[in-house]
Amino acid sequence: MPLVEVVRGPETSDKTVQSIRSFLEGSSKTVAVLNEVIPGFIINRFTAAPSREACSMVEAGYVSFEDVDKAIVATYGPRFTFEGPCRLGDFVGLDVCAYVFNNLFPTLSNASSVSPLILKDVQKGKLGVKSGEGLCGSYADPAAAYQDRDTRLIRTIKAIRDIDASEQGAN
Description:
The chain has helices at residues 14-26, 43-59, 65-74, 76-79, 85-92, 94-104, 116-123, 142-170; strands spanning 3-7, 30-34, 133-134, 137-138. The protein is mainly alpha-helical. The strands form 2 sheets. The protein has a two-stranded parallel sheet. The model has no long low-confidence stretch (mean pLDDT 94).
């Protein structure tokens, strides 16, 4: 993955953070600096939020895990290759975001523990690709599934970098 989350400790100086950032960026990494240690850092926290909501919607019978993934892949997937939720808000309009969120937030899951759906699968030994079965189905050949996923991820990252490079060359 191209991202490295640099987490500032209580005694980490600005100079140290800048040195680490420069080194990593010189190694073609994308750097995000967290100003203090928080559980999950950045990406795990953002991954947990939609996962929690997906479980909540499936538990309520609104949607299947497969359809949650289809919706995300068809919208957020492409969008989040070039803009995060903050820039997305800028383009949607912060007034629109405020209106939608004001109505939506009270209906979102605020669960503070793992979904029973996930715990049930864990207890049954359904651990995802590594066990051959997970939330979205069976994986007859886990090694092939990992290889396919890794290949697609690498190709996607390369395509994004190519787009970014061509846009920088045009400017």
